[in-house]
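[Q] Does anyone have a clean structure-token version of this?
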Amino acid sequence: TIMEETLLDIMYELPELNGYEVVITPDVVASGAKPLYIKNKKTA
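[A] Here you go.
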């Protein structure tokens, strides 16, 4: 249930985050910190 609670909000945000990578760090799981959102580079 820890992972479910951690990922619940992120799962709802993902469809709107087209072109982003979401990085879950230990701090996100342990202390509720915000995940890292990294914009993917566009390739031709």
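[Q] Thanks! Anything notable?
[A] The mean pLDDT is 87.
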